[in-house]
Design a protein that fits this description.
Layout (H helix, E strand, L loop, with lengths): L1 H18 L11 H14 L1 H4 L17 H6 L1 H10 L19 H13 L17 H11 L1 H4 L14 H6 L2 H10 L15 H13 L38 E2 L1 H9 L4 E5 L3 H6 E2 L4 E2 L7 H4 L9 E5 L5 H12 L5 E4 L2 H7 L4 E3 L2 E3 L1 H7 L1
Parallel strand pairs: 1-6, 2-4, 2-5, 5-6
Antiparallel strand pairs: 3-7, 7-8
Helix pairs in contact: 1-6, 2-6, 5-6, 7-11, 10-11
The protein binds heme C (2 copies).
One heme C (HEC) binds next to helix 8 and helix 10.
């Protein structure tokens, strides 16, 4: 039974990481698994979120028992516990970014948190919500800034301008929080006070801050030209030691980039993710393009290292990697931590037109 549950958790977890589907029926924990999760919660989380999960014990850590969070947040809970929110007191706990929790433990905690309360999961759509940004900003200044900060830096409410939070949540997750509030906390439900349009405007405004609180419109960039694919064309080849014959760590990649090694970086996430934030110098090659062959025609075939990343942390990257290997490419590697892991470790990412490190981004908020 225990083994069965672990398999289920792993399957759900993989589904969540790989395709962002929400489990129709969350797996049940055995009493033994519950005991372990409860102990781990007390050990790692209660300091800030409280021994009863009530929140706001330290650092204004949110409640982890409010119905509106639990019913909408299976995926968001897992990603937040795994990767944290860089620039806030919420650290990432996944072993791949320093631990101490492995994948099974992260998802066991999520299921445990959900099992402590009674609610029916709400299946949220994952659509883009359109709205008027300037109305959204006015409403934000009037209704939200006292708790979330003039620039979304967070006061007693979470930092809504935090790029980790924005990259791990969907528009519908944000909208659900605004409509329903967070029961048992200071976060009011706005569905009675504001119109549906107002709430869409606010959601779109908050989402638009993913490219920086000061930016009015996202600044779209041209992907690099084929002649710019190879970074540091005159540099030496990086000394990459693959783990499991396929993976390279963020530390090794950062080292290669800092030392101006010759390589190609491929970003296999969706194009909008690349536009929002990427690793400087990366070439967008989203996994959903069928025609990898023609897209790959400008990639070097002379053994230049090609490092591939996505956000899953690896499913889309491995998919593109397999295609490139089938096409005869040599020296391909997949970034082990993925983009979220890279960003959570504080390695530089590029937003809009400027290259900044995470810490700089946070100081700007
Ligand atoms: C040092 C204090 C601290 C510890 C310890 C901590 N957290 Fe947090 N956590 C926070 C803060 C602060 C936030 C809100 C960050 C922000 O501004 O977005 C947060 C956010 C979260 C969220 C997002 C909630 C939401 O409303 O979207 C989840 C889930 C979470 N933490 C789970 C955990 C779990 C599980 C643990 C233990 C493994 C843990 N945290 C340990 C401080 C902490
Ligand atoms: C009186 C203070 C207060 C006001 C006003 C307020 N919030 Fe909040 N908000 C909070 C708190 C506190 C939380 C965290 C709830 C918890 O502890 O679980 C929160 C949570 C949220 C979340 C979920 C964030 C996450 O990490 O899961 C969103 C989104 C949000 N608020 C948006 C808004 C918007 C938009 C407005 C204005 C229309 C607003 N809030 C007004 C206090 C407030």
């Amino acid at each position: 039974m225990r083994f069965f549950s672990i398999v289920l958790v792993t399957v759900v977890l993989q589904a969540v990481f790989m395709s962002y589907t929400i489990a129709e029926e969350p797996p049940k924990l055995t009493p033994e698994e519950s005991t372990i999760a409860s102990k781990q919660y007390q050990q790692y989380c209660s300091l800030c979120h409280g021994s009863e999960r009530q929140g706001h014990v330290n650092d204004h850590a949110p409640s982890l028992k409010s119905q509106s969070l639990l019913e909408s947040g299976f995926r968001e809970l897992g990603l937040t516990i795994a990767y944290g929110r860089a620039g806030t007191p919420m650290a990432g706990y996944f072993e791949e970014i320093g631990g101490p929790l492995n994948r099974e433990e992260v998802w066991r905690l999520v299921v445990w948190l959900e099992e402590q309360e009674n609610f029916d999961p709400v299946e949220l759509a994952h659509n883009t919500i359109d709205g008027d940004l300037s109305t959204g900003q006015t409403l934000y200044d009037q209704e939200c800034s006292t708790c979330h900060g003039d620039k979304g830096e967070g006061i007693n409410g979470p930092a809504l301008g935090n790029s980790a939070m924005l990259s791990m949540t969907s528009d519908d997750f944000i909208k659900h929080a605004i409509e329903n509030g967070r029961q048992g906390t200071d976060m009011p439900a706005f569905s009675a006070k504001l119109s549906a349009d107002d709430i869409n405007d606010l959601t779109a405004f908050i989402r638009s801050r993913a490219t920086g609180w000061e930016v009015q419109k996202p600044v779209f960039r041209e992907p690099p030209a084929a002649s710019e694919y190879v970074l540091n064309p005159d540099g030496d080849s990086p000394q990459i030691e693959l783990q499991d014959g396929l993976y390279v760590s963020s530390f090794a990649l950062n080292d290669a980039l800092q030392n101006k090694r010759k390589l190609v970086l491929l970003d296999t996430r969706g194009m909008s993710s690349w536009q929002m934030a990427n690793i400087e110098g990366s070439v967008p090659l989203p996994y959903y393009y069928e025609d990898t062959e023609s897209l790959a025609k400008d990639l070097p075939r002379d053994g230049t290292w090609i490092v591939i990343y996505c956000n899953c942390p690896r499913a889309a990257a491995e998919h593109v990697n397999n295609k490139l290997v089938d096409l005869g490419f040599k020296n391909t590697a997949v970034l082990w931590e993925g983009f979220s892991g890279w960003a959570s470790l504080g390695f530089p990412i590029s937003l809009g037109k400027t290259t900044i490190t995470n810490m700089d981004a946070i100081e700007k908020l």
